[in-house]
Automatic annotation (TrEMBL):
UniProt keyword annotations, A-Z: Cell membrane, Ion channel, Ion transport, Membrane, Potassium, Transport
GO molecular function: voltage-gated potassium channel activity
Protein name listed in UniProt: Potassium channel voltage dependent KCNQ C-terminal domain-containing protein
Keyword match Cell wall biogenesis/degradation: no
Pfam families: KCNQ_channel (PF03520)
Organism: Adineta steineri
Catalyzed reactions per annotation: K(+)(in) = K(+)(out)
Assigned GO CC terms: voltage-gated potassium channel complex
Domain Potassium channel voltage dependent KCNQ C-terminal: 1-82
Xref: InterPro entries: K_chnl_volt-dep_KCNQ (IPR003937), K_chnl_volt-dep_KCNQ_C (IPR013821)
Subcellular locations according to the entry: Cell membrane
Upper lineage: Eukaryota, Metazoa, Spiralia, Gnathifera, Rotifera
Membrane topology: Multi-pass membrane protein
């Protein structure tokens, strides 16, 4: 308990505060960089960076998946209609015609 009652050294307090502040600022910078990577940063006219952001790439992939889903549905409907037509033709051929 005697250690707890000892007065603080002002230089130690300032040094710990500075260290904590630098650590906090570096973490904020890291989080901002990750957000910029995900969301994309507003680019100025003279910027050479032209790559799309992660969010726009994900949206593009979602649109492509939706288009593929629609095409697969259309192909399934086409396959079902061809199968139905084939079954009807086979049943007509196998049905004996009545002799008059």
């Amino acid at each position: 308990f005697r250690e707890a009652l000892r007065p603080y050294d002002v230089t130690d307090v300032i040094e710990q505060y500075s260290t904590g502040n630098v650590d906090m600022l570096s973490r904020m910078k890291y989080i901002q960089a990750r957000l910029d990577k995900v969301l994309g940063t507003p680019k100025s006219i003279d910027s050479y960076e032209t790559g799309p952001s992660l969010a726009s790439r994900i949206c593009k992939i979602e649109k492509q998946v939706d288009a593929l889903d629609l095409k697969i549905d259309q192909l399934c409907q086409l396959a079902n209609s061809v199968l139905d037509l084939h079954i009807r033709q086979v049943s007509i051929i196998r049905t004996p015609s009545p002799i008059a």
